[in-house]
Amino acid sequence: MLAGYFCEATRRKLGMRQLLLAEDAVQRLDAYSWPGNVRELEHVISRAALTARAGTSATIVQVRAEHLGLLVPAVTEPVTELAAELAEDDSVRDDSTVRLPDTGAGLKAATEAFQKQLIVTALQANDGNWAAAARELKTDRANLVRLAKRLEVEVVREIVSR
Fold first, then answer.
1. How much is the CA Rg of the chain, to the nearest whole Å?
2. CA dihedral (100, 101, 102, 105) positive or negative
3. Res 101 pLDDT > 80
4. Could you tell me which of 16, 36, 14, 60 has the C-alpha nearest to residue 2?
5. Closest to 10 (Cα-Cα) out of 21, 23, 22, 19
């Protein structure tokens, strides 16, 4: 009901003759848990309409599921069942799987340990080059340096005189 209202408002705002929601888009919208407020729905429909309009020159635009972006459906299974399924699935296992420490540390400590491990590994792979490590980690170099400083990671370069 709200989706139809926002479609109509977006149609008027963008000057379209007609804006339709395809069945797969309606199903995707229904499956999403909507943790935000009504404005989130309005923005999703507005972005989807713009994306759908960019793909056609017609005056009648149809919003399909692929125009909605990454709406992750609500989890309907208990988390423990989902974790058990993932543990049984061999496709999610590889050598880079991170194991949680058995120290009983909380989420913050475990997250910081993981971040520190990633930063150290990236710096070692890039011979201490911060810019290359930041590119590998897909982050800004300055942010990486600040995070590393907070996590007490530093690169020491030695000059040896002979």
1. 24
2. negative
3. no
4. 36
5. 19
> 54 or 101: whose pLDDT is higher?
54
> What does pTM read for this prediction?
0.44
- Which tens digit of pLDDT belongs to each residue from 104-146? 667 888 888 889 899 989 888 888 888 999 999 998 989 999 9
Q: Tokens representing 70?
A: 């990454």
Residue with tokens 């909507």, as numbered in its chain:
34
Six token digits for residue 62: 């149809």
Q: List, in order, residues 6 or more apart from 114 with CB less than 8 Å away.
A: 98
Contacts 24+ apart (CB under 8 A), 1-9: 2/38, 2/41, 3/29, 3/41, 3/45, 6/41, 6/42, 6/45, 6/46, 7/45, 7/49, 7/63, 9/42
Q: What is the pLDDT of residues 47-77, one digit of tens each?
A: 888 888 887 777 788 888 888 877 655 544 4
